[in-house]
Structure formats: C-alpha cells, structure tokens
Design goal:
The complex is a heterodimer of chains A (245) and B (525).
Chain A (H helix, E strand, L loop, with lengths): L1 H12 L5 H5 L3 H10 L18 H14 L7 H10 L17 H13 L8 H9 L19 H12 L8 H10 L18 H13 L8 E2 L4 E2 H12 L5
Helix pairs in contact in A: 1-4, 3-4, 4-6, 6-8, 8-10
Chain B lengths: L1 H21 L6 H11 L2 H9 L6 H14 L9 H14 L28 H32 L15 H20 L36 H15 L5 H13 L4 H14 L3 H14 L5 H15 L8 H18 L4 H14 L5 H13 L4 H12 L20 H17 L4 H14 L7 H5 L17 H13 L3 H15 L4 H11 L5
The chains are: A mainly alpha (245), B mainly alpha (525).
C-alpha cells in the first residue's frame, strides 16, 4: 500500500498518471488493489495482504485513490466513521480508537476526512487548540505533550492546522526561525533539531513547513497531499473535466 | 693487479654500503622482491639507476664480465685461458654471480577485492598465502564429503570393504564447520561474497532466487551481500511454500538484519502456524527482538497475530489467560521502562486490554496510578487511563465515542476521576495533560465546565482589573475560566482573560486567543 501510494504520487508529480494506461496495467487495476485492502465491515485499510491496520494506510488509500479518480471503489462512509472513532477526549486523533493523540496520526485523520469532504466531523477549535499547544518556547513543534520538538512536526502539525484554516494560531515567525536553525548552512539540508545530522526526510518536511508558512521563494504546497498545489490542481482539475479525452 | 684488486674490493664495499641505505625495511611485497633482486645485482642497480658512467673502471669490467658469464653459450667461445681469467676476475670482484628473478609488474596479480597483491605488506602476504593453502585443503575435504554423500544417497558399496557408504551427523557437523571456515577464509581473501547459505550442506537442495533488478532501474538497491543471499534463499523457500525449522531460522536471520521487512514476518507467522510452534516460545523470542528494535512496527503486529492465534486455539496451547496477561504485563512494563511513551507499546497495551478483557485488572489501573505518580506529565499514561475507564464495555455505552457524553457511567466513577485529575493538577498546575483529562471527564459526565469553577479560580488571583499584580499558576486554568465565564454570561471576564492570555500568559499562541476573542465579540470583527 505505502509503495503504491508513493508511486501514484510520483506519477502525479511528473504528470505521468496517464502512462499507467499506456505502459502498465492501467489505473483501474492499481486502484482495485488498494480497494481490496479495505475491511468492508470496519472501513479500515490494511497495509498489505498481511493485515496490519492503521489510519496511515487509510489516509494513503484515500490519497492515491482520489488522485486516480477512483474513490468510488471503496466504502468512503465506513472509512470516515472509523476515523471519527479515533477522535480523543483531548481533541486529537490516535492510531486506533482509544489510542493516544499523536500529531502524525492527526495529519492522516484530518487529511482523510478532508479528502472525503467530511471536515464537519472534526471539533476544529478543540483540535486546533491541542495542535497549537504543540509549540514549545523555542518555536519548534512536538508530536505529543511533553515530547521533544522536531522539524517533521512542522509538517504534521502545521498541515493539519492549515487544512482547518488555523495556521495563524501558532507563532509562525518563531517556527520559521526554528526550521532555519536546523539547516546545515555549509552542506545544505535540514535536520530534526538544530545541530543534528541532516537527512532527506527532515529536509522535505522543513521545506514543506516553510512553504505552508509562506516563506518567500517556495512553491505553494498542498497540506492534504504533501504535493505542490499546482500538481494537485492539475490532477484533480483533469478529473473534473467531463471526460474530455 | 693487486692494486686493481684492492680497488675492486673497496668499490664492492661501497656498493654494499649504498645498498644498505636503500635496504630499509621493505613496506610491501613488491619492494621486498626488488630489494632481493638488487641485492643479487649491485652493479646493475648502479647502472640502471645512475648510468654506466658511474661505475669505476674495475667495476665496469666486472659488470661486463658478469653480463658475459650470464649469457648462455658466450663463455664457451673464449679460450680455456680466457675462461680462467674471466672467472678469476669475477671472483676477485666479489659480486654475486647468480641473479634472483627480476620482478615483473604484474607478477602478483590482484585479489578479489581488486587490490594489487604486490602492495600487500610482507605480513599480509604471509597470511594471504596461508589462507589460500588452508582454503584449498578444506576444499579438497569438502569435495570428498560431497562425493561420499552422493555415494550414501545412492547406497553405493565400498568396493574394498563391501560396506554401504553412510554420512553421519558428525560428518555433517564437520562439513558445516569446514564450510564456515571456508566462507570466512574466502571473505578474508578479499572476496566480497559471504556465502553462508551456499556453503551450508543443509541448504544444498535449495536453488536461491536472486533479486533481478530491471536494467537501468532508477535507484538500484545496494543490498549487503549477506542480506542479498539470505533473501535469495527466502524467495526460493517461499516460492516452494516450505514450512520447516530451517526456514524459521532463515526468517530469524533476515529479521535480525532488517526487522522492517514485513514479508518475512508474514512468512514466519505461516511457519509458526504450520509447524504448531508453541506460541509462548515465539512470544519469548519476540521479547528479545523487541528490546533490540524499539521503534519497529512489524514486531507489534506479529505479537497481535500470535495473541489472536492463541485466543482462537485455547486447547492446543494450554491457554491460560491469567498467566498470559501477567507475562504480557511484565513484558510491557519492561518495554516502558526503556521509554515510558513508546507509542507502539501503549497501542499494543490497549489492544491487549480489549482482547483479554483487562478493563478492571489491577495491573492496569494501579499501574497507571503508579506511573502517573512517577511522572505526572506522561500523556500516554493519562490517555490510557481515559481508555480503560471510559471504554470499558461493562460500565459504558457500547460504541460511544471518546468525545461523546455517556449517561450510564456511574457517578462515583466520575467523582473519583474528577478528584484524581484535580489532585494531579495541584502537583503541577501548568501540566496540560490532567487539564485535558478533566475536561474529557466532564464531557463524558455531561457536566458543564462550571462544575469546577471554584477549582479553576483557585489558580489565579481575583481577576477584576488587577493587571500588574495578577498571579496566575496555570494558563490552562485561565483557558477553563474563559469558557466557564462565557457559559455563565460573564463575557467581559472571558474577554479580559483572553486578552491577558495573549498579552502575558501564553503569548506564543496569540493567534489562538485572538481568534477566540473575535468569536466572543462578533460585532467588532
């Protein structure tokens, strides 16, 4: 599932989703594979035939299926109900119903609900209140209360806030400063925390975080898909055209 | 002649001295060989390095005599007297007559790692030679083993004794040891491939399936050779659907190298099922793996599958729920002692509570009490507390969401939890977890936040326009009071608090407080 989602995202990025028809087994087959991983009773998605379930997979499926225009292959309503059941008393979301709220998981849940056009199920003020509590005095964001800040949460927290239109609830200037401090100014790249080794993962989320913060010189990023806005608009725009092909 | 003779000797001594200068300890096999060669050709060294002109007349003659003597058939052309004179002169020149073979640049070759063997140090070279001879010795023995095993397979008789050839456990053990030694020698000789399975007689019947990369693949995966080999064998046995102990062993090897490879876990679980491996044994093995890989996802899924399986087949595994619950509790606590907030562990714990019906188990509630008394800021423990109390199917409405009020919850439980949260807030008023918890309990109970108005107010001085002297022990209390005053139609107090929160008590979230202020004063926005 995760590799399939990545493949669809890369094809979307390089405008090659149509190549699936020309050079491969076609969009439908790819979509059917992902749809086959849904538990039709619970609405959840497994990561593979093995059956590990997690809201990460649910989000991944909705992400890729929507880019392919194949959401109708799955039971979106059941999936939505499952996500709603992962909501916690503190306003956040966990991996499974009853599991602790976690910023990364909140991203997957909020993005899934956004793709399904069911943001109405989110207690937005409560959630954003919890998310904005993630900012620590040095400007960075953490994933859970009393945990260390990390650049990747600039993305998980900020994208979630962005989807519900509340990025201004945190101190954006301070967060920009924090991300910039994590830069390796000699070799390039961004690390998890100032002074640590850089890697691709944190560089991506540092950059996408800066993009959401409107940092000058960066393309706009889509908070739901973690792809450039222009890419998402192109792909979803094509789908909306009444089958012009 | 005597004078010349003397001159010759003294020159030879000079040459010797020169040679000693250049004869410093050789660093490589190549240097050693050249040194050996020059030591047998001192005059040639001078001629080659400095030119013929550098030789004294005596040495020049000795050099030419030597060249003549070393040229096959030339001496015979001289008269008997001439020959005698030549040998006499050579003997007086006191130089070695026989030359060591002249080193060739390519004479040492390269080892399998691409390194020129001529660049080895003499010690390295000695070890290299020793390994090579040991390896060929072992290869011979191994070839005999294979021959005998073949004979044993066909039940061939020994022509001399008439006995059928057999292969004993000891033979196999010896061959295993031999192949291990061979593999390590082979690798030690600069070979990159460590063919542990290829050399294991137990795996001789399996044809490994190596990974085929499509040509020009965008990013070729650089597998370690050991890993690649093990994977090639895994593909082969998985394709053959072989479920055996050796396969179980193979999965362990691969998991050890790459615990995130989920296919191998899937296969391992199938083997466990097929061979009916005692699940408690597997759980115990898994404990060790878990301690090594604290952040791995697959371990936890495997564990859940094992517990599910145990649950389904109670008879076969002498399933004892209490014993299992106790063992799992011990394991969980050990894991949490390494990281009290490990998400996987907590998530598994919640699964286990559901699966084994541990809602009211003493191991749960009193353990959480203990953990929170050790670290009142452990949000994972707070979250688990909420789960075991408000998702307990015996005491709550089935299917109620964590965010829904639930009217069937006993009042005494609500009271107890409110008091508990309040007690913990007193310990660390600026700790957001128990405030969130308190709010969650009130929502479950269907009680307004005003229920704890006095409590919240006790964390700040009376508010009305004290500004500079105001004392606040918890910004979370102010957050509560904003809602409490708003519900009680004391909007001005709410707005005042929101302003103070954004100005002084929690300025990093200024945007949030301003937003809420705007929501309370829609006419002004």
């Amino acid at each position: 599932m995760l590799y399939t989602v990545s493949a669809v995202q890369i094809l979307a990025l390089v405008d090659a989703l149509d190549e699936l028809e020309k050079r491969s087994t076609g969009k439908l087959k790819v979509a059917q594979f992902m749809a086959s991983l849904q538990d039709r009773e619970k609405g959840t998605f497994a990561g593979d035939e093995w059956g590990e379930e997690d809201t990460r997979f649910l989000y991944g499926a909705l992400n890729a299926l929507s880019l392919l225009g194949m959401l109708h292959l799955v039971d979106v309503e059941k999936a939505v109900n499952h996500v709603a059941a992962c909501a916690n008393f503190d306003g956040g979301y966990g991996v499974n119903p009853g599991d602790e709220s976690h910023s990364g998981q909140i991203f997957t849940c909020v993005a899934a609900l956004t793709i399904a056009k069911r943001q109405d199920l989110i207690d937005q003020d409560r959630l954003a209140g919890w998310l904005s509590e993630r900012q620590v005095p040095n400007g960075g964001l953490n994933g859970r209360p009393e945990k260390k800040e990390d650049v990747c949460y600039s993305w998980w927290v900020l994208s979630s806030l962005s989807m519900i239109g509340r990025t201004h609830w945190i101190d954006q200037e301070k967060l920009i400063q924090f991300i910039l401090q994590c830069q390796d100014t000699e070799q390039g790249g961004i690390s998890d925390r100032p002074g640590n080794m850089v890697d691709v993962w944190h560089t991506l989320f540092g950059l996408t975080g800066l993009s959401l913060l409107g940092y000058p010189g960066l393309d706009e990023i889509d908070p739901v898909y973690c792809l450039p806005k222009s890419t998402v608009e192109r792909v979803l725009g094509k789908l909306r055209e009444p089958s012009a092909v | 002649m005597p004078a010349k003779n003397k001159g010759g000797v003294s020159k030879a001594k000079e040459t010797e001295a020169k040679q000693q200068v250049s004869a410093q300890q050789p660093q490589t096999v190549r240097e050693l060989e050249w040194q050996r060669y020059w030591s047998t050709n001192p005059l040639h060294e001078i001629v080659e390095k400095q030119g013929l002109a550098k030789l004294s007349p005596t040495d020049k003659r000795a050099y030419l005599n030597l060249e003549l003597a070393r040229s096959p058939g030339q001496i015979d052309k001289l008269s008997k007297k001439g020959q005698r004179e030549l040998w006499k002169q050579l003997s007086e020149a006191n130089i070695p007559l026989r030359s060591a073979p002249r080193p060739r640049d390519d004479q040492w070759g390269h080892d399998n790692a691409g390194r020129d063997i001529g660049d080895y140090t003499p010690e390295e070279y000695a070890a290299y030679e020793q390994k090579k001879s040991r390896l060929s010795e072992l290869r011979l023995d191994s070839a005999f083993f294979k021959r005998d095993r073949e004979r044993a397979y066909w039940k061939t008789k020994n022509e001399v004794t008439g006995e059928v050839y057999t292969i004993t456990e000891d033979d196999i053990r010896a061959e295993k040891a031999r192949r291990q030694e061979m593999a390590s020698l082979y690798r030690g000789l600069g070979n990159k491939i460590h063919s542990s399975y290829e050399n294991d007689p137990e795996w001789d019947d399996v044809v490994p399936i190596p990974q085929e990369e499509p040509e020009g693949a965008l990013s070729a995966i650089a597998y370690e050779e050991d890993y690649a080999e093990a994977m090639a064998y895994l593909r082969a046995v998985m394709a053959a659907k072989e479920y055996s102990l050796r396969c179980l062993q193979l999965t362990e090897t691969i998991i050890d190298m790459n615990p995130a490879h989920y296919t191998v876990w899937l296969y391992r679980f199938d083997i466990i099922k097929a061979l009916k491996i005692p699940i408690r044994d597997e759980l115990e093995w898994l404990n060790d793996v878990s301690f090594q890989h604290l952040k791995n996802y697959q371990i936890w899924h495997h564990r859940q599958q094992l517990i599910d399986l145990l649950h389904l087949t109670p008879g076969e595994n002498k399933f004892n729920k209490r014993e299992l619950a106790r063992d799992e509790h011990n394991f969980i606590m050990q894991m949490l002692s390494k990281d009290t907030k490990n998400y996987h562990v907590w998530s598994y714990r919640q699964y286990l509570v559901r699966k084994l019906d541990l809602w009211t188990s003493d191991d749960e509630i009193s353990c959480i009490d203990l953990m929170l008394s050790q670290d009142v800021r452990n949000n994972s423990a707070w979250s688990h507390r909420f789960f075991i109390i408000f998702s307990n199917p015996d005491l709550t409405t089935f299917g109620a969401l964590a965010t829904d009020p639930d009217s069937i919850i006993n009042e005494s439980i609500i009271d107890r939890e409110i008091k508990y949260a309040q007690k913990m807030i007193e310990i660390a008023p600026q700790n957001q977890s128990p405030w969130n918890y308190l709010r969650g309990v009130l929502v479950k109970a269907g009680l307004p936040l005003g229920h704890v108005r006095d409590f919240a107010e006790s964390f700040c001085s009376p508010l009305v326009k004290l500004d500079e002297q105001e004392e606040v022990r918890s910004s979370h209390a102010l957050d509560f009071l904003v809602d409490i005053y708003n519900d009680a139609d004391e909007k001005e107090k709410s707005i005042y608090l929101l302003r103070r929160l954004s100005e002084k008590w929690d300025p990093i979230r200024k945007g949030y407080w301003t937003y809420r202020q705007r929501m309370l004063q829609p006419q002004q926005s």
